[in-house]
Design a protein that fits this description.
The chain has seven helices and five strands, in the order E-E-E-E-E-H-H-H-H-H-H-H. With 181 residues, the chain is mainly α.
């Protein structure tokens, strides 16, 4: 039996005379004129060179947009751990309701004030919660708008050889939120 090229369900590609598992599928053998670094695209069912393929490059550019987007939020992740961020919506809800009605009960805010022990008034703390909420909303909108714009711009570039350089040269850069003077 002649060797065949197989792909396992998890994506590993190997050459063997028979499949290692019944779920492995036969794929076309890598063309002899292609580099050993070539990759197989199971969506297009072709082998390609990752250094020259515009479709692969476009996927990498989109991945870069998303990775850099996540990176932009790292300072928030460092300053505010996940469990603290999970409580933000509860703090904001209590703060908004208290601002509408100073008689509204705010058990979370009251306990935070007590445990924080910073000698701050409830009004100051509520205003601080609302200010930080507004700052985060602005940052989120600013970065997410840029992410969506870049994503759409890259998606609209045709993924053919004539546009390879345009895809390659597309700069993924998040601009800082403008500060009000």
């Amino acid at each position: 039996m002649a060797p065949q090229t197989y792909m396992a369900p998890h994506g590993q590609i190997y050459v063997n005379e028979q499949p290692m598992s019944p779920d492995d599928v036969v794929i076309p053998n890598r063309p002899e004129n292609m580099s050993i670094h070539s990759m197989f695209d199971k969506d297009r069912w072709i082998w390609f060179d990752p250094m020259t393929d515009p479709v692969f490059l476009k996927k990498q550019k989109i991945r870069e947009i998303l990775v850099k987007y996540e990176h932009e939020f790292e300072h928030i992740n460092l300053v505010y751990p996940p469990h603290e961020r999970e409580g933000w919506s509860l703090q904001i809800t209590e703060a908004e309701r208290w601002l509408d009605d100073n008689e509204y009960e705010t058990p979370m805010i009251d306990l935070l004030l007590t445990v924080r022990d910073r000698n701050e008034s409830k009004e100051d703390f509520v205003n601080s919660i609302m200010e930080k909420s507004n700052q985060f909303k602005q940052l989120y909108a600013w970065l997410t708008g840029q992410q969506q714009k870049m994503y759409n711009e890259v998606i609209l570039i045709p993924d053919d050889e004539q546009h390879y350089e345009e895809i390659r040269d597309y700069v993924v850069e998040y601009l800082p939120i403008p500060t009000s003077q």
